[in-house]
């Protein structure tokens, strides 16, 4: 949620509840007006299986999966999530589904438990994009 709010408002808010939101946002990219719809799902709700998760996957055109560089568990669930997304989306089409892995909290390097190299290697092995960012900065 912090990363989504930072993208939408350019502000950082550190504490969020455990709620799911859909945001709409206009942005001009290369002279073209783009309308984003962002379905922000907290990690606790991402863990659920079944129709809710499938509904989210079918709704989306692309995916940004965010983990904390300070939380190994948030990183470790990514391969299964990505495999689930690819199976659901690419099974219907020959097109590659755009997926980006984002390591957040780069500013907390002293608490890091997941290296940048691990993130890059995971993204490479799963054919995804990769970035490390700090929503706070």
Short summary of the structure?
The protein is built from 6 helices and 5 strands; from the N terminus they run H-E-E-H-H-E-H-H-E-H-E. By secondary structure, it is of the alpha/beta class.
Q: Would you list the SSEs in sequence order as H and E?
A: HEEHHEHHEHE
**Structural class of the helix and strand makeup?**
alpha/beta
Examine the secondary-structure arrangement and name the CATH architecture: 3-Layer(aba) Sandwich
Give the helix tally. 6
Oligomer: single chain
- The CATH first-level class comes to Alpha Beta
The strand order across the widest sheet is 3-4-5
Count of spatially separate domains: 1
Strand content: 15-25%
Sketch the major β-sheet. 3 strands, parallel
What would your notes on this structure say?
The mean pLDDT is 84. By secondary structure, this protein is an alpha/beta fold. 36% of the residues lie in helices and 25% in strands. Strand 4, helix 6 (116-125) and strand 5 form a beta-alpha-beta unit. The radius of gyration is 15 Å and the shape is globular. The longest helix has 13 residues, at 78-90. It has a single domain (1-132), classed as 3-Layer(aba) Sandwich (Rossmann fold), CATH 3.40.50.300. The strands form 2 sheets. Strands 3-4-5 form a 3-stranded parallel beta sheet. A two-stranded antiparallel ribbon has the order 1-2. It is an enzyme of class 3 (hydrolase). One of its GO terms (molecular function) is G protein activity. Keywords: GTP-binding, Hydrolase, Nucleotide-binding. It comes from Circaetus pectoralis.
